[in-house]
């Protein structure tokens, strides 16, 4: 995580849409396919939420995702020349996952992982931050998890407030990791 944060802080790839795309994955826990298809109309400005329709989610269940201040800033900073938030210069949705990941591997000196692994990293990190497992399950849009069996039949609460808090805390944690890693690199440069 720290090496990924450092690579992002250094502005790891161009064009800028790749960096923004990668930052949004780290800050939000969402995987490439849903984020790549984020359309300008699919997020609500007033509530800072993003509705992922069932046809774009892995489990075919619609999902509501809170957009932290950092993710919202990334979205607002994207040029509007397409219906997609993360668009190529030709107006298509971002699809350069392989190249963005290869560059991140080179800059971070970490290989042997997939972008999807970041979901596990996020949930593990959230547990360290004190996020209850059932809230993390809802953030991931898991239909079975800590609340399962008969409890899942009766428990229909979406934990939207708790999910918002958890994603805000995660975003702050990632930003702190980026700042700390960048400060250490600058200190190393100064010493050496």
Walk me through the structure:
- This protein has 192 residues and is mostly helical.
- The protein has a single domain (2-191), classed as hpI Integrase, Chain A (Orthogonal Bundle), CATH 1.10.443.
- The protein is built from nine helices and three strands, in the order αααβββαααααα.
- Strands 1-2-3 form a three-stranded antiparallel sheet.
- Helix 1 (2-9) packs across helix 5 (97-108) and helix 2 packs antiparallel against helix 4.
- It is globular, with a radius of gyration of 17 Å.
- The two termini are 24 Å apart.
- The model is unreliable at 3-14 (pLDDT under 50).
In quaternary terms, these chains amount to single chain
**What is the spatial order of strands in the main beta sheet?**
1-2-3
What proportion strand?
A: 5-15%
The chain-level structural class is mainly alpha
The count of DSSP E runs of length 2 or more, i.e. the number of strands, is 3
The global form is globular
Order of helices and strands: HHHEEEHHHHHH
Main sheet attributes: strand count, strand direction, barrel closure: 3 strands, antiparallel
How many helical stretches?
A: 9
The CATH class, by name, is Mainly Alpha
Mean pLDDT: 78
Note the gap between the termini. Answer: 24 Å
Task: List segments where confidence is low: pLDDT < 50 over at least 5 consecutive residues.
Answer: 3-14
Task: Give the fraction of residues assigned to helices.
Answer: 40-55%
How many structural domains?
A: 1
Could you please say which CATH topology applies here? hpI Integrase, Chain A
Going by CATH, the architecture would be Orthogonal Bundle
**Rounded Rg:** 17 Å
